[in-house]
Amino acid sequence: MNDKAKRAIGLKYDSTDKKNAPKVVSKGYGDLADAIINLAQENGVLIHEDPYLSEVLSRLDIGQDIPESLYFVIAELLAYSYVLQGKVPPGWEDIVKHIDFTV
User: Fold this and answer.
1) Structural domain containing residue 17
2) pTM confidence score
3) What's the pLDDT score for residue 2?
4) What are φ and ψ of residue 54, in 5° steps?
5) 4 in Cβ contact with 59 (< 8 Å)
């Protein structure tokens, strides 16, 4: 595969089950990546573009948990996506009170 080909990897995290890591639920390249991205946009799913992260995630199989080495970066992205949606991640209630979003 051409390293420059567009790719999309979809992750899902069930925040009600603290024992499970985010899982790869979709992935594709080229036209399939475009279809995944379009479907995500149509359904209000936030999209993060990171060629280095997508390279690592593209090596995982559908249904596979993300590796422990990615927990921190994925947790940050999930927390940030909550904030962008006006939600507060569990356990962040006190932290968000002290953030100045007007900057």
Assistant:
1) 7-96
2) 0.75
3) 52
4) -65, -30
5) no
